[in-house]
Design a protein that fits this description.
Shape: globular
Largest sheet: 8 strands, mixed
CATH architecture: 4-Layer Sandwich
Bound molecules: zinc ion
Number of helices: 6
Structural class: alpha+beta
CATH superfamily: Ribonuclease Z/Hydroxyacylglutathione hydrolase-like
Strand order of the largest sheet: 1-4-5-6-7-8-9-10
CATH class: Alpha Beta
Length: about 300
């Protein structure tokens, strides 16, 4: 497969609704939880898409969006729920990125709009990162591809509705213990892993990279069909427009670069792993080949610039 062929998915499964929703995160939200009906509420922040545990009391602001790495929606804090979102159904599409790797795209997207990935191993499917919206059709589409083993999530911006996903699929969700303070919807399904690496299945390893959040992680997939390996990076490593370099951002949306220690740590922690492609949260935004060298040269360039 050439890099150009990877610009487009080989295959699309599922059905998208092409209704002309603008995708504004504030479009259908409410400013007071009481507007969601009688408590308890299980609110979702309209800007980051993270769901909160059921509660009876008001909530002024989403702590994840109030943090300097995110932002409060321009029209103020707004809330919704999974039930409200499902009243206006989204479409679910699985794009086959390469053999054994699918991406789950919700159309139109909700909040940050990240994709989730499906890494299909002989043992079953691992879902990497999480979308806020899902419904029965989404789950059917995923289950049709084989048994689902687990979900793992790169960092708090993509926690989304992870506990509802875990309940619906009855699977564990792996998140790094260093980011525990950012879990807004605790669940018995959550597994707080520690250390710099965790082997989920043979050939699928979580690597704690830090830098963006302390527990920020990427997923290394060794057993690609061509044997070259791939890194699925969330936004812990930021793919960029020239597709030859990557960026290292403490805040992606507010343009706060990582410092030298964090960047050197990322290079060190990836040193034991070989990979060719680097996938990110957006369709087409990737390093299509020679990904490990892209990390090395990007780190060298980043360090040169921030130390001038
Ligand atoms: Zn938020
Ligand atoms: Zn992020």
């Amino acid at each position: 497969m050439t890099a150009t062929e990877r610009d487009r998915p080989d295959e699309v499964e599922g059905e998208a609704f092409s209704a002309g929703r603008a995708g504004s995160p504030d479009e259908t939200g409410v400013t007071e939880l009481s507007a969601l009906g009688p408590p308890p509420w299980r609110p979702i922040c309209m800007t980051c898409g993270v769901q909160f545990a059921p509660r009876d009391e008001a909530l002024d602001v989403c702590p994840i969006c109030a943090d300097e790495r995110q932002y409060i929606g321009w029209h103020g804090q707004q809330w919704t729920t999974l039930d409200r979102l499902r009243q206006d159904p989204r479409g679910s599409e699985i794009h086959i990125e390469e053999p054994g790797l699918g991406s789950l795209n919700i159309v139109p997207a909700t909040a940050i709009g990240q994709r989730a990935y499906l890494i299909e191993t002989p043992e079953g499917t691992i879902i990497w990162d999480c979308t806020t919206y899902f419904d029965d059709k989404t789950l059917d589409l995923i289950r049709a591809r084989g048994p689902v083993l687990a979900m793992a999530i790169s960092h708090p911006h993509f926690y989304a509705s992870m506990s509802s996903w875990a309940e619906a699929l009855d699977i564990p969700v792996y998140i790094h213990a260093a980011d525990r303070e950012w879990v807004m919807d605790p669940s018995d399904h959550l597994v707080y892993w520690q250390g710099e690496t965790l082997d989920l299945t043979p050939g699928v390893t979580l690597v704690q990279l830090g830098g963006h959040f302390t527990g920020s992680s990427a997923l290394h997939w060794a057993n690609t069909e061509d044997g070259l390996g791939a890194l699925v990076a969330g936004d812990t490593i930021k793919t960029v427009m020239d597709r030859r370099y990557v960026g290292f951002m403490y805040s992606v949306v507010n343009f706060i670069p990582m410092g030298p220690t964090a960047v050197k740590d990322i290079v060190r922690r990836l040193e034991p792993f070989e990979f060719d492609r680097i996938y990110s949260l957006w369709s087409g935004h990737m390093v299509p080949s020679d990904g490990k060298a892209a990390i090395t040269r990007s780190a060298a360039r980043h360090l040169e610039f921030i130390q001038q």
